[in-house]
């Protein structure tokens, strides 16, 4: 199924999603990679607020390239999400609703996604220019010194994504290969 969603996201928005569904996401999405996640953890450890409201938020694991004239952002392909796994359950417990990236996640992240009614969505790896077409505006909001890893506020429109982990424990990395093998076996019979 295909769904159209707008941030901020609620558990009710995410509940119908199943691993393998497609999503067109619009609204505000924040960027954060390894270094930014480390700084967010430092802020939380010090009892300080994050640079954006985490409740219902979507974080895109991306380090965009510089924009060309007339463009909001340069190439904006996803980075490997597993590098953020040690930080993710804490952010999900604080209300993070959606993560966007590529690659498998740890069992702790999978369990936290289910516990918090969140989702993990895949952006097309290797298609940074396509993903950038969905970005209508981009503003650095924290840690400009991190360069491409600074936290940015993106406004996106119809960003094409696929549900990898759903709030019910569905995991496309498990169900996808199984479905492919079953279809292949049926085709050979």
From TrEMBL:
Signal peptide: none annotated. Residues 4-175 form the Fe-S hydro-lyase tartrate dehydratase beta-type catalytic domain. InterPro entries: Fe-S_hydro-lyase_TtdB-typ_cat, Fe-S_hydroAse_TtdB_cat_sf. Keywords: Lyase. Belongs to the class-I fumarase family. NCBIfam families: PRK06842.1, ttdB_fumA_fumB. This is Fe-S-containing hydro-lyase. It comes from Gemmiger gallinarum.
């Amino acid at each position: 199924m295909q769904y159209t969603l707008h941030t901020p996201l609620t558990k009710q928005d995410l509940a119908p999603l199943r691993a393998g569904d497609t999503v067109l996401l619009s609204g505000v999405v924040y960027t954060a990679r390894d270094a930014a996640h480390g700084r967010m953890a430092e802020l939380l450890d010090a009892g300080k607020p994050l640079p954006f409201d985490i409740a219902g938020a979507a974080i895109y694991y991306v380090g965009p390239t510089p924009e060309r004239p007339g463009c909001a952002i340069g190439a904006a392909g996803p980075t490997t999400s597993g590098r953020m796994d040690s930080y993710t359950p804490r952010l999900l417990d604080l209300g993070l609703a959606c993560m966007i990236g590529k690659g498998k996640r740890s069992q702790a992240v999978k369990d936290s996604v289910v516990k918090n009614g969140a989702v993990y969505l895949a952006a097309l790896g290797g298609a940074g220019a396509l993903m950038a077409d969905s970005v209508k505006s981009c503003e650095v909001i924290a840690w400009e010194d991190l360069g491409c890893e600074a936290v940015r506020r993106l406004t996106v429109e119809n960003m094409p994504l696929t549900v990898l982990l759903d709030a019910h424990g569905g995991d496309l990395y498990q169900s996808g290969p199984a479905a492919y093998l079953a279809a292949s076996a049926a085709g050979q019979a």
